[in-house]
Amino acid sequence: MRESVYPIAAAIISVALAGSAAGPDDPYQKDIDTLKKINNQFHSQHRVNRAFMAARFGPLIVVEDGEKITLIHRGKRVEKSYTPKLYHLLKEVDHVPLAAFLTVKSFLAERSGGRREIAFHELKAARDEIKHARERFSGDGLEPAQKYRQIQILKNTDIFMNQVVDEGDRFEEPELDRFARSVSARMNQNAIEAARAQLRGLDRAFRELKADLSEAELKSLRVIVMGSAPPRRGNLAVQYFSRALGERGEGERIVYAESIIEIDRALDKIAAHDVDHSLAKAFLGDERGLDRDLLEKAAGDALDEIFNK
After folding, report:
1. Strand, coil or helix: 309
2. What pLDDT score does 191 carry?
């Protein structure tokens, strides 16, 4: 059934290609203007249907990646924070050598240009901040091995920044990569322990929230994970709920709301997801037919025509 849309899509592409070559007296424009109100009606009704879908949502979990988890059910919202302070501490220590690396990289790029003095001033300011952090860091509350690791990361970074400032224009770029390698293993262990701490917090919060759901409600529960674009693949919360709900990742019950940071916008996204599935099922015979670009195959065929002449 899905193949039946391809001739239509190919026709759309052909029209678009032909239209791009048309002059100011484009013969298509009159018909486009005639249909414009109906096209606007489509978009308007899509919004209406999204609102209708949203009003009918069953139990829904919204995860604000790294912040909190919210259960939306029976007209109420219940929020719980789930990320422990340990996660933030380990993450911020890891950001110290990253900040040093980028500051030195900027200095190397600028030291032969007009911003050399400014870049060197920024380099020394960063060195001073890192030294201050190293001197004041206590490690209170950490396990002995964790405390030692943080101290070593800060110590190595402090020593490295002093080296760069002392050598100035004599500092050689290969030393930058050598520094990164010297701290990477400890930084990676921090990342492992931060992920473990965050997952345990998420699990604890979810178990508390789902205690109010019946077995039937739990089976119909859906999850929206709000997050940024780069970490989408392998996202921690998506992995967790895939296990918790017995799913294989993103799909009907787990939706990743990329670059969305507001709950109401995330709800609109999952409503749009539902509307598009209803359209795809009716017109394409496959409710997931709009999860990919409708013009995918037709575009490939049209490009073959263009480049294989």
Report:
1. coil
2. 96
Residue for token pair 């200095």: 107
Q: What Cα–Cα distance (Å) separates residue 63 from each residue in 60, 97, 219, 223, 303?
A: 10, 29, 18, 7, 41
Q: What is the pLDDT of residues 251-260, one digit of tens each?
A: 888 988 887 7
Structural domain boundaries in the chain: 2-50+292-307, 59-83+200-284, 85-196
CA distance 269 to 50: 9
Enter the tokens of residue 48.
């209406």
Cβ within 8 Å of residue 45, ≥6 positions away: none
158-189 burial code (b ≥16 CB/10 A, e <16) = bebbeebbeeeeebeeeebeebeebbeebbeb
Is 59-83+200-284 CATH 2.30.30?
no
Q: What is the pLDDT of residues 48-90, one digit of tens each?
A: 787 766 666 779 899 986 789 999 888 788 999 999 999 999 9
The distance in angstroms from the start CA to the end CA of the chain is 30
pTM (predicted TM-score):
0.73
